[in-house]
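Students often ask why we bother encoding 3D structure as a string. The short answer is that it lets us treat folding as translation between two languages. Here is a chain of 172 residues written in the first language.
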Amino acid sequence: MTQSKTTPLEHIQQINYSIEGVAELSLFQNIDEKKTADNVREFFKSDFPRIRRMALASADLQSPVNSDMPKGDVVGNTAESSIIKRVWAQKLTDDVFRAIKACDHDSQVIIRSEALHGRRRIDIQEEVKYEHSQYFLKQREAYNQFADAFEIQDKGMDLHYYIKNKNGLSAD
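And here it is in the second language, the structure alphabet:
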């Protein structure tokens, strides 16, 4: 007898458990590890520096000035918008660091050294004691670990690249 159990998580397929408790289907969709690593690398290269600058910038708050002079209507509250963006960027930055901490030690060293501090790969290879080809495999693994951990953070996003099924559709 088989019972069907579904989970509320997005991107998780229905799982059929047998009486012995062995899963009959894959829990997660198949991902392309190389393209996922590329997505993470691009996130750290393009998006994260901007997010970090937004998080560190000070919001210029000023008291309103009353004047009898006519002026155009301002749509929205620009100070409030700036504060919201800054808080969002700070929270996202915290989530990035929390996701890095969820990775194994060598992955943390690789991500921090390469993506955050811009160190040369040869120097990082010496620190983690991997040969050239081993390093690139470990680097891919590190970026995939980050993608897994970042996806479940409060402000995190899904950086995985999903493999399409035989019909050419993503399994989402």
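Translate back mentally: The beta strands are 3-5, 15-17. Keep this in mind for the problem set.
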